Amino acid sequence: MTIIKSERELDLMRKAGKIVAECHQLVREIIRPGITTLEIDAVVEKTIREKGAIPSFINHHDFSYSICSAPNDVICHGFPDNQPLKEGDVITIDIGACYQGYHGDSGWTYAVGTVSEDIQMIMEHCERSLYLGIQEAVAGQRIGDIGYVIDHYAREHHYGNVYDFTGHGVGREIWEEPTVPHYGIRNKGARLKKGMVIAIEPMFTLGKTANYTEDDGWTVRTVDHSICVQYEHTVAITENGPEILTKL
């Protein structure tokens, strides 16, 4: 069931989203060759807790970390570890914060040092597709409108568009209804209404989108080990259009 948020609830979600955005700002400042994702995880957890919130992902279905770490060919849900990041790597850091019972959720892809032109271009295009999808997040339109523009953009620029993992509603739970696919048909799917809050999170690959889950039961990689990037914002549907909650 899709949950409509009150103005009080939206205000709490704005605060949760701001904390997530501030964490990403810190990640942007510290990410470099030689840092480990466990070090990033520690910084993010400390920041979230200092701001009076709780990391959304810790203890969520037995996940043990404050970030999901997705380097290079990892699509999503990877564990942070002690492996130092290398020059030319690309990595998605997904962060969630729960403030007074309400969540903010945002994943962002970062270049580690200088990356190849192919990686730089797919990063720019995937981020662009996110904002095209957000432009469709208007009361009265449908979920399919969001997915349509993202998928059309991916195809236009010859990138793989991961269908197996989707956006979602956000609120008292980090993942709520409705499901928000990054593909779709215009004028199809659930109708968007004022007070809905959704996460839009396109994932593009440089190769195939077929994937597998590692033995840890979480980490998802591309079968052909092609690079995957992802950009995600939590977005509220308001009478004045889409409001990005996870952006400073």
From TrEMBL:
Keyword match Zinc-finger: no
Cofactor binding remark: Binds 2 divalent metal cations per subunit. Has a high-affinity and a low affinity metal-binding site. The true nature of the physiological cofactor is under debate. The enzyme is active with cobalt, zinc, manganese or divalent iron ions. Most likely, methionine aminopeptidases function as mononuclear Fe(2+)-metalloproteases under physiological conditions, and the catalytically relevant metal-binding site has been assigned to the histidine-containing high-affinity site.
A Gene Ontology cellular-component term: cytosol
EC number: 3.4.11.18
GO molecular function: initiator methionyl aminopeptidase activity; metal ion binding; metalloaminopeptidase activity
Reaction it catalyzes: Release of N-terminal amino acids, preferentially methionine, from peptides and arylamides
InterPro entries: Creatinase/aminopeptidase-like, Pept_M24, Pept_M24_MAP, Pept_M24A_MAP1
UniProt enzyme class: hydrolase
Residues annotated as binding a divalent metal cation 1: 94, 105, 232
Cofactor(s) needed: Co(2+); Zn(2+); Mn(2+); Fe(2+)
Keywords of the record: Aminopeptidase, Hydrolase, Metal-binding, Protease
Biological process terms in GO annotation: proteolysis
Residues involved in a divalent metal cation 2 binding: 105, 168, 201, 232
Record-listed substrate binding positions: 77
Function in brief: Removes the N-terminal methionine from nascent proteins. The N-terminal methionine is often cleaved when the second residue in the primary sequence is small and uncharged (Met-Ala-, Cys, Gly, Pro, Ser, Thr, or Val). Requires deformylation of the N(alpha)-formylated initiator methionine before it can be hydrolyzed.
Name of the protein in question: Methionine aminopeptidase
Species assigned in the record: Enterococcus saccharolyticus subsp. saccharolyticus ATCC 43076
Gene name per UniProt: map
